[in-house]
Amino acid sequence: MRIRFGWLAAVLLLSAGCTPDGTAEGVSGEVHALLSQQVADWNSGDIAAFMDGYWRDERVRFASGGEVRRGWSKVMSDYERRYPDRAAMGTLHTGGVEISEISKEAAMVFGQWAVTAGGAHHCGLFTLLVRKVEGRWVVVHDHTSSAGDSVAAGRTCEQLATGAGEETSESATQRKADGARLYADSRVGIERRPTQGAQHAARVRQVVGKQ
Prior knowledge:
By secondary structure, the protein is of the alpha+beta class.
């Protein structure tokens, strides 16, 4: 995918496991492997390896910065010119990634990206269409946008780049426990209502009977 400050492919936040067949878990696992490899390739400064994750076809589509570019060869040349060395590429970070399976051979990926280069942070959002072509997953459409000083969920570029503002595993566990407790309490309240209603009716009958 083409980006103004470098593509930020995603490490998917998957709660399900991976299976070897074409189930949702299998598709997610395979796409996860593709994107994780691209992140590693970018951060190692290997543009050629990074671009290997894209459909090597002149129909591959890149949209960014208000323009659309087509063709693997053209985008490869642009990357080599724009990022002549590892320092220019910076370090890639991602967050808020979601994957949506379309079929056993296609999926959409959504997420936030951030690149830190030369002490500056740049960030935005990305949307990818990935497909399984000739037995391997590749990106066939890449739309990357810059979000200025902030991204979704109110996190700034610096927060996304440094991992600040992310929910820790401990806080996530506590949040889920709190939610479960509140739900349980609400269920108890619902179950008590018939009993409380019956008790009130009995008290009313007692009062009426004494009159």
